[in-house]
């Protein structure tokens, strides 16, 4: 109980300090190995391929003060246009992965793709430690580009599931997306990596269905 005779300012400090928080410190951020991009590349799902997406991950991480790590975007690639099929789960290392606040979101690839992972709106944060808007926020940007199935592999279905391997910004085409806040609509509304397909690949198309061309980055 807070003594009634204490000044209001002192009481305020005591109450605020009683609420635990997890701040982003240089130590926890340097240990970061997972984040959602705070910004996209501004050209819809045209990321410059998986290579361009990887570079964007590295650029954002370095701007946040994280050095000496190799980053890969959690994106699958289809066997089209002379490209080999690539599974997102095979690009990201072995784990474990921590966010910018030091929270372990998954201990291994299998853990990441299980119900045991700790991915959520609170834990799937940006490289700056910021929470990404989800369902109920304005604007809603919970659609995260993945091009992947529930188990992190490239889709075996016919048709575009990666916006032409992350090179298209057209109103046509499609990419599989997940919901970082684990809620919403689609075939798998609570899935972080395979909630539904986008309606188009352009920036405005992605915004219209609850996204902003953001994607997951992993170091490993």
Structural summary, described in words:
With 220 residues, this protein is of the alpha+beta class. Helix content is 20%, strand content 13%. It is built from six helices and eight strands. It has helices spanning 8-17, 26-30, 49-63, 109-112, 163-166, 203-208; strands spanning 34-36, 71-73, 97-98, 104-106, 143-145, 176-179, 196-197, 211-219. The strands form two sheets. Strands 1, 2, 5, 6, 7 and 8 form a six-stranded mixed beta sheet that branches. Strands 3-4 form a two-stranded antiparallel ribbon. A hairpin with a 5-residue loop joins β3 (97-98) and β4. The protein is globular. The model is unreliable at 1-20 (pLDDT under 50).
User: Major β-sheet, in short?
Assistant: 6 strands, mixed
Structural class: alpha+beta
Number of helical segments with 4 or more residues = 6
Quick one: how many beta strands?
8
Please trace the helix and strand order, writing H or E for each element: HHEHEEEHEHEEHE
Spans where pLDDT lies below 50 across 5 or more residues: 1-20
| Average pLDDT number | 91
**Estimated radius of gyration:** 19 Å
């Amino acid at each position: 109980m807070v003594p009634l005779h204490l000044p209001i300012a002192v009481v305020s400090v005591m109450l605020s300090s009683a609420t635990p928080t997890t701040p982003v410190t240089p130590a926890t951020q340097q240990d970061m190995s997972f984040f959602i991009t705070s910004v996209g590349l501004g050209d819809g799902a045209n990321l410059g391929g998986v290579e361009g997406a990887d570079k964007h991950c590295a650029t954002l991480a370095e701007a946040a003060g994280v050095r000496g790590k190799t980053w890969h975007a959690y994106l699958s690639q289809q066997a089209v246009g002379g490209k080999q099929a690539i599974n997102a789960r095979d690009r990201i290392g072995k784990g474990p992965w921590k966010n910018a606040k030091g929270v372990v979101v998954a201990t291994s690839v299998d853990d990441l793709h299980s119900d045991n992972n700790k991915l959520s709106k609170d834990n799937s944060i940006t490289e700056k430690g910021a929470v990404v808007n989800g369902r109920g926020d304005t604007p809603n940007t919970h659609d995260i580009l993945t091009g992947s199935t529930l188990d992190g592999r490239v889709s075996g279905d016919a048709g575009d599931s990666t916006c032409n391997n992350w090179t298209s910004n057209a109103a046509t085409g499609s990419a599989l997306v997940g919901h970082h806040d684990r809620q919403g609509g689609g075939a798998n509304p609570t899935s972080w990596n395979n909630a539904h397909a986008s309606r188009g690949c352009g920036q405005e198309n992605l915004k219209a269905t609850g996204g902003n061309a953001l994607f997951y980055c992993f170091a490993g």
